[in-house]
Amino acid sequence: MQHTSNIEKVKMLEFPQKGDERGHLVVVEGNQDVPFEIKRAFYIYGSDPDVVRGQHANRLSEFVLINVAGTSKVKVKDGLGREKVFSLDRPHIGIYLPTMVWKDMYDFSEDSVLLVLASTHYDGTEYIRDYAEYEKEIKESSHQVKENK
Ligand code: TYD
């Protein structure tokens, strides 16, 4: 029995590059280059290579992650046994993360600056930080999908 899960919606994005002889310029517009209106930006830097960040799922927030400098990796899990790993290694490449996927960010290079664009303002209560709780919510919602078919 295959469940559809939000992991299918995870995708790499390539942003328009408008650089010239003066240098590089990359454009990221809400609702155009990323599939949501951008309400928040934050960035992560100075994480050691052995640090794992994220380790949560979000009930409401969608994100786009861009390594504007340096490199990192993102592992995405769907709570139903599937996982995918993506490398962020160019300033004009991002990854789109929909709601309700589990994500780990790791393998940060020393110069890594990871820019995160979010569809929501911060609300700690929409985070699921316990993997067992995440799996439980995913399994409950996939049962509901089955029952409504
Ligand atoms: P955390 O979610 O642990 O970061 P990461 O996703 O990289 O693992 O956030 C670290 C702290 O920052 C935590 O106390 C919550 C706070 N925070 C905000 O206040 N606003 C935000 O937009 C974010 C992402 C975090």
Your description of this structure?
- There is one protein chain.
- The protein is mainly β.
- It has a single domain, classed as Jelly Rolls (Sandwich).
- Helices cover 11% and strands 36% of the residues.
- The chain is built from one helix and ten strands.
- The strands form two sheets. The chain has a five-stranded antiparallel sheet with strand order 1-7-4-9-2, with no helix packed on it.
- The longest helix is centred in the last third of the chain and has 17 residues, at 131-147.
- The chain is globular, with a radius of gyration of 16 Å.
- The two termini are 14 Å apart.
- The mean pLDDT is 95.
- Bound molecules: thymidine-5'-diphosphate.
CATH topology: Jelly Rolls
- Rg is 16 Å
Major sheet attributes = 5 strands, antiparallel
Low-confidence stretches: none
Gap between N and C termini, in Å? 14 Å
Q: State the secondary-structure class.
A: mainly beta
List cofactors, ions and other ligands.
Answer: thymidine-5'-diphosphate
Report strand %: 35-45%
The string of secondary-structure elements, in order, is EEEEEEEEEEH
Helix tally equals 1
Name the CATH architecture.
Sandwich
Mean pLDDT, as a whole number?
95
The count of strands amounts to: 10
CATH class: Mainly Beta
List the helices and strands and how they pair.
Elements: E1 11-14, E2 40-45, E3 53-58, E4 63-69, E5 72-77, E6 83-88, E7 93-97, E8 102-106, E9 113-118, E10 127-128, H1 131-147
Antiparallel strand pairs: 1-7, 2-9, 3-8, 3-10, 4-7, 4-9, 5-6, 5-8
Thymidine-5'-diphosphate (TYD) is lined by residues 40, 42, 44, 53-54, 122.
